[in-house]
Amino acid sequence: MSKGPGLFSDIGKKAKDLLTKDYISDQKLSVSTYSYSGVALTSTAVKKGGLSTGDVAAQYKYKNTLFDVKVDTESNVSTTLTVTDIVPSTKTIASLKYPDYSSGKVEIHYFHQHATLTTAVGLKQSPAVDLSVTLGTPTFALGAEAGYETASGTLTKYTAGISVTKPESSASIILGDKGDTIKASYVHHLDQLKRSAAVAEITRRFSTNENTFTVGGSYAVDALTIVKMRLNNHGSLGTLLQHEVIPKSVLTISSEFDTKALDKTPRFGVALALKP
């Protein structure tokens, strides 16, 4: 596929991942195995409060086709079929969930040297339609997305964004929630491998005149260990430790504190992902 500006969902993604990815408040264990036929199996168990859930997922790839299926403890079956280059520079994704067939949808991504276009259509009689377009280059991109509900004839969302990406940093501004919020973020990488970084994000909600300012980052202690932290102006402090206990298997320990109410019980989460 052509090297272009990326998807609209990539705008601001680096900052979002640094501030939210892998922060957890429950206990999670996942074990992955691979068969000789090329099928990857992953079993996941999650305990949150007094409730335990789990699922089993299988993934199989053949040439330009990827097939995923997941079954959870409530007997919901989710399937996803991804095919690359049915038409050159495209990716087609079809998803279906049993027994809720109405949640199924088909997505088509088109990649061009200076533009990307995505469309998603629900698989029901009066489907929801999502459309996004991004223009630019890998260094500079601007785009917009919109959602339309055909049953009611209304726009469910419209968002616009712009991003600037350099080897050592990236910045973005996103106008979302139908124009009610504006979010600006900046990420600066501290090493060439981009394993250590600092991030700042500010969000303004116009309807409530509320501002949220968050700073954070990640630091590679060594080749096997990463620590992350985030703090916002409301006093929420999150910390995270990730350590590769054996090759490809990662232990994650996360916590979140309210620094303005230290008498409250902090939240802790632990996750262990075992891979062969």
Topology at a glance:
Layout: H1 13-20, E1 27-34, E2 39-48, E3 51-62, E4 65-72, E5 77-84, E6 90-98, E7 105-111, E8 115-122, E9 128-136, E10 140-149, E11 154-166, E12 169-176, E13 181-189, E14 197-205, E15 210-220, E16 225-232, E17 236-246, E18 249-258, E19 267-274
Parallel strand pairs: 1-19
Antiparallel strand pairs: 1-2, 2-3, 3-4, 4-5, 5-6, 6-7, 7-8, 8-9, 9-10, 10-11, 11-12, 12-13, 13-14, 14-15, 15-16, 16-17, 17-18, 18-19
Report on this model:
The two termini are 30 Å apart. This protein is globular. The protein has a 19-stranded mixed β-barrel. With 276 residues, the protein is an all-beta fold. It has 1 helix and 19 strands. A hairpin with a 3-residue loop joins β9 (128-136) and β10. The protein has a single domain (8-274), classed as Porin (Beta Barrel), CATH 2.40.160.10. The model has no long low-confidence stretch (mean pLDDT 94). 3% of the residues lie in helices and 64% in strands. One of its GO terms (cellular component) is mitochondrial outer membrane. GO terms for molecular function: porin activity; voltage-gated monoatomic anion channel activity. Keywords: Ion transport, Membrane, Porin, Transmembrane, Transmembrane beta strand, Transport. It holds the Pfam family Porin_3.
